[in-house]
Task: structure prediction
Amino acid sequence: MEKVIGIDLGTFNSCVAVVEGGTPVVIANRGGYKTTPSMVAVTEAGKRLVGHIAKRQAVTNAENTIYAAKRLIGRKFQSTQVANAVTNVAYRIVEGPHNDPRIQIRDKVYSVPEISAMILQEMKMIAEDYLGQEILKAVVTVPAYFNDGQRQATKDAGAIAGIDVIRIINEPTAAALAYGFGKNIDRTVAVYDLGGGTFDISIMEISSAGVFKVVSTAGDTFLGGEDFDQRIIDWLVEGFKEEHDIDLRQDRMALQRLKDAAEKAKCELSSVVETEVNLPFIISSARNEALHLQRLLTRQQLEELTNDLVARTVQICEMTLEEAGLGKDEIEEVILVGGMTRMPRVQKSCAEFFEREPCKGVHPDEVVALGAAIQGSALVDEEQDMVLLDVTPHTLGIMVVGGYFEELIPQNSTVPTSRSKIFTTVRDNQTAVKILVMQGENKRADENDLLGEFVLTGLRRAQAGAVEIEVTFEINADGIVSVHAKDLETSKEQSITVTATSGLTKDEIDNMVAGAKNFAVARRDDEELERAKQEAETLISEIQKLLPKVEEVVAGSDYGKDAVDKARVVVEKARQLMAAGDAKGVKEQIEALQRTQRMFKGVVGKVG
Amino acid sequence: MSEGGDDPKDDERGGPKSDEPLGAAVEPAPVERAITGWERIEGAQRRKPKRITLDMVGPPLALPDAPHAEAEAPTTTRLALPPMDPLSGELGRLERLILGGTPEVTTDEDPPAGLEDDGWGRSREMPPNAPPRPRASTPPPFNAALGQGPTVPGESDILRLVATRSRPPGSSVLDLEGEMIDRYALGDFTGALLAAELVLGKQSDHVEAAKCAASCRERLCHLHLSRLGGVARVLRVAVDGSEVRWLGLDHRAGFIMSRVDGASTVEELVDLSGMARHEALKILVELLDAGALKL
Result:
């Protein structure tokens, strides 16, 4: 059976999982970490860094390190979120040719899906290294509030990375799946997701029919683990300033170390009550004297420093429940998602607010990816009885007189679906109507997203309200929306097919796919060369260790001298091939090196 | 100190007059040969060197037993050599001068009895009829097969270069370009790089200096990498966490050391450092030498 991976493409961290032998498992990256920072950087030498390595240089190379690209994906350049990002991030965001935000790294401009594709490609490679086979299909998760454009952009990112995204599912849905919901259970659950950079709370109704309905979702896209780290950094910086009158924020290297140490301390304080932050040689004083930072941080201090941040999440939960029209007692389960929910204070606040202990047992960092993997496996395994129905993430409708939004297909409708409504003209002798197809939950049309528009002409001249027009919305199994408008009297009709767009043209995507493919091939080649080089280096080192002994043994013999000379030639050739970066040549030369090594071992072994 | 050569002491030292173009006045023919060698290798157009005149004389940049060393030893004032500075001599002081610092100046009086000038501006105890001090060794030539940068001349060439260097020892003129070329020829790539960077700081489009700087960086990287055993080697911290602060590092070395996690390769550490490649590699070598890191 074909393997389908589940990818939690997070704002700050990503995770990949797969179902093996019926059990979903998270795949660790090469460093042994089960999550990979969603960061991409380009070094001064033009080398691309993805994941932990990019994170570890994020402060010292801030202008060329991209993080939180998810906040920008599928959005318009003029949107509030993009404007917020422009003022908050160190990297450069520029306007793209299709009114989309693009990111400039050094001298190259990248689209946002391209950046996300680099992260997806990394996750794909992690899975391929683990499974030992090429992976072509994946289920990718997105926040419940993502609109069609954002979902399409995520799919495009997958395509650029060489992945066929067979399904996009909501993050709370994936989390609920991983916790074992969705199998003959009817329940209302709250998914509290406090990640690296965002907070989301979703109230879901899970039905035994396999429908995961997001009743209400809210959050703060600028509240997460980073803010907790920042509080620790501020505390450390202020303490150091008091002691030495030096502001560590002015030094990038010091700030990078502080950031790493703050995150480490925060994680440690989830399991211990105090930890020491020890950063020797953090900065040099004006007298060129190296200074050290050493402070003890307790769990209580951390809780005091971050109390307002936790309180803010509770406040958002309260608003969301109100919006959903539900009382706390109607929430039957609370699911914790995101690394920050390991913090005891967060768990306690959550339990106090919902008046019940949250579900435990699944790692909050991994739960979303596990759910995506379960869904992926179910989609390709016909024997599995789990049915997860696709629902529309947002309400679809049209704009009507007065600038209002008239709903046709409500949010969370299962697809495929079709709905019709009859509208009338609003002016006397009106011969044409403009149909504006929109998506969103707001009553004011201009606050929702415009998906497309078309005009129905040739209407009969009549008084206002006399001509009736039937508007039909249809969503097929692939999620493609078609809108028809028909004059009921003349049967004249017009229609439009709305295809979600990420802001990239097909040609652009094709070019990016080719670029990403070349990068992947080059990277694999580099890795192959590196492995071959290491093997060759080891053999050369062993040969050189044996060489004096062999020379001693064969001294005086012409045959022996020839053998030693030949061995030297073999070693020299291997070195030349390594210097030239010839992976194939080095691999071939390894055989010669192995023969030489065997021969030398034999000679030395014979004489004891 | 002044720039442009209007120091009245110039005449006494046989240096250029204030209205003379400095470079032309003091440049002996053999220097041209040395520079021509550079041009031949780099294929670049040599610019007329800019010169800086200081109101003091630096130590001659020649091997201690080079022909000029004793004959033309400075007789007026001399700068004190910083003992630890790899860029000791005129260049290090020049850097300080350009950066606005005040050079440490000592009066050049006759050395005390029993002490002689060792040719580097330092007074050393020299036994009577002492044999000449051994010559400085030159690093082996860079692998020309890689086709990067000019080749370093052989030892005999270097000695000739030193003997007929761009300016006579004791000259009042500090010639950055000459310094750059000489240092490069002697295999002092760190010094040559600093000289090249100083030239570039004054004239950013200086082609030879840019090429020299690039070549020096390349060579320094090569040297450091050979010490580290290649870019793929993994470095580990060799000292206990509690002992790190006794190592006496600076904050840059402290930063690089903090990036060493026992899994990152030399190449990755260079990427993480945010520093120029040769600088990061140099620090790694220093940490290795200090026993702070192990391979």
In short: Chain A touches chain B through 34 residues (CB under 8 Å). Chain A has a mean pLDDT of 89. The radius of gyration of chain A is 30 Å. Chain A is about 40% helix and 25% strand.
